[in-house]
Amino acid sequence: MIEKYLNWLESHQIKIDKEKIEKLNSFSKLVFEWNRKINLTAARNEKEIVTRHILDSLMPLKIGADREKELLDLGSGGGFPAIPLAIMLDKTKFLLVEKVAKKCAFLNKAKRELELKNIFVENTMFEQLQSPLPKALITRAVRIDKKLLNEMKKKKIVHYYAFLSEKPENIPHYGYILPDEKKERYVARKEAE
User: Rounded CA gap, 111 and 95, in Å?
Assistant: First the structure.
């Protein structure tokens, strides 16, 4: 399924080798299968999983996520964006933080089936995590508010990546329109202050 979107990815200067294509396809199938049992995403079919979630999850590659040694994915849910990024960045360590046990069971299943040795799953709340933690955080599912920013500061998180529907001002960002959609989306990298 991801093969249908290689031209779109290449238009954003993202290249994927055959092994990674196979893993992304396997992940898409796994999400679709588990989504019928537990609510991982609102996607109704595998195409939506690819276009709305996997392709979207790869966009932080455009603003520096590929230079991170470690990333903490907050509110990992169905594994977005961490698992697609972990497939692409197999030398980067990902800590997936999810408070719902059923979703953690899915994340661990994906880790085993896809043989992802660079992801670690924590079934906990962000506030309960103990140091040391990655210095960079990424999230698609959690709103970045003052309370979360304060918690990041306490945990010595230096910067974060966030997915936005509105164009951010004065911070590094990348805008894109997903296939079959009309509205521009953004991913931004911001200092945790």
Answer: 12
